[in-house]
Amino acid sequence: MNSLNAHEARDKDRSQRAHLLSIADLDRDEIEELLRVTDTFVEVGRRPIPKVPALRGRTVVMLFFEDSTRTRLSFETAAKRLSADTMSFSVSSSSLNKGESVRDTIETIEAMGIDAVVVRHKSSGVPAQIARWTSASVINAGDGWHQHPTQALLDAYTARSHLGSLEGRRIALVGDIKHSRVARSNIEIFTALGAQVTLVAPRTLLPASLSAWPVQVSQDLDAVLPTVDVCYLLRMQQERMTEALVPSLREYTATYGLTSARADRMKDGAIIMHPGPMNRGVEIASEVADRPSAVITEQVANGVAVRSAVLFTLLGAGRQQSSSAAYAANVSNELSVQTDSVLAEELAHAEEAT
Ligand code: CP
Fold first, then answer.
1. What 3-state class would DSSP assign to 199?
2. What's the pLDDT at 347?
3. 135, 114 Cβ separation under 8 angstroms
4. What is the average per-residue pLDDT within 295-305?
5. What does the DSSP 8-state code read for residue 280?
6. CA-CA distance, 76 to 70, in Å (whole number)?
7. Domain 149-300 is in which class?
8. DSSP characters over 136-176
9. Exposed site from 23, 64, 274, 304, fewest CB < 10 Å?
10. What's the average model confidence in pLDDT over 279-307?
11. Can you name the CATH fold of 3-148+302-317?
């Protein structure tokens, strides 16, 4: 094989690898399929040993160039529940600090033998760029203002677990839309699943143009709140604000914060969501964050199952079934058999130890 053909073969291999870079890359059936596979992993998480050997021998790398608590820990937990090996990359103690490029870093990690890279970066487009440099599957764990697809999947899963279908449901996204990758991903997933999305924010925290977005816009949270099934609050992202976009946080809270009085005006059965980390007392009152209608810790719990479903679907044995319902049912059967084998191994170890 000459070198041109070798490059072509490598590029072809890369283009055939499955990645998760954006919700926009998924159609409604693919979203529904991932949510159905998530059901199976929620059930796996309730088992006495919440672990299956599905990805034994596979290696998943956490490549976080930006801080994270929830996303990083839940991807690590998900990979371990699937019995994958994990590698964690710490930017602060890496050779990036000696001037090594991101591309050389990726190629170095890839040379150790990896199957998936979970990437977070402060710049939009870095996960897509990394997907062009590696043969591993790339999962976007949040890039700049652009996308956070697994957050959107776990939010859709959580909202559906409370509301049933999102078809015709009304969802308000409140706060710093302009700097929010969560807003961009969630608008796409909520509207793909049939919900009507209203953005509630001061004009300075909205993007310059909204003409391509299938949303309504309001500056009146008090008028919108009694009409919605979900009030989804966004964090005031002070680290991404390069100019004073609100007169003061106190003024922001007075107009756009979910205070106790405002939360009292929501419909029965309506839920409050937040991707975390929260600024208690700014976008959400501390008391409101702790109400039963605030499902913020459920979002985190569902994150492990969603990320398990994503890793399994990208790295699993592949789909043989013709429909997504058949695929999801097969995953459920397969993981039930796999759990039997994990239990058998654990029992064998226990017997050896006695
Ligand atoms: N929601 C979210 O992405 O949180 P982390 O920044 O803690 O991962």
1. strand
2. 56
3. no
4. 98
5. B
6. 10
7. alpha beta
8. SEEEEEEETTTB-HHHHHHHHHHHHHHHS--TT-EEEEES-
9. 64
10. 97
11. Rossmann fold (3.40.50)
